[in-house]
Design brief:
124 residues, seven-stranded mixed sheet
Amino acid sequence: VQLQASGGGLVQAGGSLRLLCTASGRAFSTITMGWFRQAPGKEREFVSAISRRGGKAGYADSVKGRFTITKDNIKNTLDLQMNSLKPEDTAIYYCAATSRLYTDLHEVTSWDYWGQGTQVTVSS
């Protein structure tokens, strides 16, 4: 699976951004997808994940209520709508995919495929 993330940029606190991840190489409906982020000097952390069919989604507590993940199994795209952005949301955001079942999706090691990352910077 090849993943390509885009949509990052610079935004003021309180603003919004929409990240997009496109996938190729495998039927989109057969993979769970998600987003992670990594701030300078910190470990990569879980942001959100969505089930294969797109019916179930989970979020880190730090973004719950502000971010929304969606998956389009026809267009093979994964979106992350980020609202009410805060300076602490500044990081490189990575889309990820996995075909594993019954795995802890909060763990980096549970994911098989990664995009190249897109920078999100939120100014105060």
